[in-house]
Q: What sequence folds into this?
């Protein structure tokens, strides 16, 4: 397994997944939820023992049936498994959709010998279509769970993703593993995504929820592909405590390391989503410093990477910095253009300053354009107003994005 050590403390397992932590198994099958897809599309992640759970959800006001059922189950107490499908969102499907979501939980619970309320269900894909429950039911029965099944589960939740997205980290006696899907309908509002994270650490629920919220705010809520959100977005963490040791809580000496590990997992997965965005040729990284507050820094950074004008300019290798400045002005963050500095960064760390102190700078246009040529494009803005700093990641907007989304259901 490929590993990297971060700060001599956090070990990064680049090949890790949701089955890296102790006591978790996973598996997946192909049942043909969408008959035009020949790929894994139904998967399960299960823990040997009940888990403390925390979650964040889409803010979309028309939530999918699976999300409604899952919120009820997570609120009811410990969870022990996730069952998920790709190809059909089970959203805008009325009472039948609610019944189908509950049935997926029941079938999974029966397979595992647990209570159905201990199962979280997730669906992603086409909105307004019913789940093929006959095929899904047979598929759930056939799933073989194993400690090596995390990658198959990551593949089973993919829709227009071109590759599975997964990672794990280890620190001392515990580890955290995660998988995510989502490359379209992605916006900084809990994004269009399914994210499942597991850990064998013993974690108090309030601390787990607070750590997840902070991790999501600095990762999944700082990305954008197309300014859309879906009815099914969820980020779920399950902690089974099988690593032993003291229960982690806000005042525990190990709390900071756990929060940092969870944040690293979420940030890695969020950036992987943008790197695989539908039709994208670039990843745009916007770093804002000197904002009046953290909230303002996040507002400005998110507005830059969600701007259609910025996205199309980056795709065309056009250093049209006026669009970036305009996006900042639209962000509702406090701005003083006479204190603002805007630059493009080259892959070698060189800086091309294009705007400063309220006026355009004299710069080499060829050097500015060269900053836009790599796959990763870096924009830096110093607001000159305070200590707030944040980074957001977005994709460019291409003809291929339009093509993919013009034929998604046909």
A:
């Amino acid at each position: 397994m490929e590993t990297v050590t971060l700060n001599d403390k956090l070990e990064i397992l680049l090949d890790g997944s949701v089955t890296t932590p102790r006591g978790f198994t996973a598996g997946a099958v192909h049942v043909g939820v969408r008959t035009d897809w020949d790929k894994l599309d139904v998967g399960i992640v299960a823990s040997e023992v009940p888990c403390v759970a925390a979650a964040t959800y889409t803010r979309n006001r028309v939530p999918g049936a699976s999300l409604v059922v899952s919120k009820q189950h997570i609120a009811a107490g410990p969870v022990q498994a996730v069952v998920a499908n790709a190809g059909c969102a089970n959203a805008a499907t009325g009472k039948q959709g609610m019944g189908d979501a509950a049935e997926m939980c029941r079938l999974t619970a029966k397979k595992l010998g647990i209570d159905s309320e201990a199962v979280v269900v997730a669906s992603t894909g086409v909105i307004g279509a019913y789940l093929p429950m006959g095929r899904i039911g047979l598929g759930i029965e056939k799933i073989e769970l194993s400690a090596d099944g995390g990658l198959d589960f990551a593949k089973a939740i993919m829709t227009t993703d071109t590759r599975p997205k997964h990672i794990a980290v280890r620190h001392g006696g515990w580890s955290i593993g995660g998988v995510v899907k989502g490359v379209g309908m992605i916006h900084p509002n809990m994004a269009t995504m399914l994210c499942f994270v597991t850990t064998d650490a013993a974690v108090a629920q309030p601390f787990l929820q607070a750590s997840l919220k902070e991790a999501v705010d600095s990762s999944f809520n700082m990305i954008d592909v197309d300014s859309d959100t879906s009815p099914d977005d969820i980020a779920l963490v399950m902690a089974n405590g099988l690593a032993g040791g003291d229960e982690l809580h806000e005042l525990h000496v190990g709390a900071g390391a756990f929060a940092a590990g969870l944040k690293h997992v979420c940030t890695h997965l969020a950036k992987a989503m943008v790197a695989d965005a539908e039709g994208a040729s670039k990843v745009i990284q916007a770093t804002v410093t000197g904002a009046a507050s953290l909230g303002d820094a996040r507002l400005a950074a998110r507005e830059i990477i969600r701007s259609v004008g910025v996205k199309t300019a980056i795709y065309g290798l056009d250093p049209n910095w006026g669009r970036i400045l305009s996006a900042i002005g639209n962000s509702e963050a406090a701005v003083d253009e006479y204190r603002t500095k805007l630059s493009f960064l080259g892959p070698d760390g060189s800086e091309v300053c294009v705007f400063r102190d309220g006026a355009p700078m004299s710069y080499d246009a060829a050097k500015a354009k060269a900053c836009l040529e790599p796959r990763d494009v870096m924009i830096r803005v110093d607001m000159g107003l305070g200590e707030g700093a944040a980074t957001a990641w977005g994709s460019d907007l291409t003809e291929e994005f339009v093509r993919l989304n013009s034929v998604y259901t046909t």
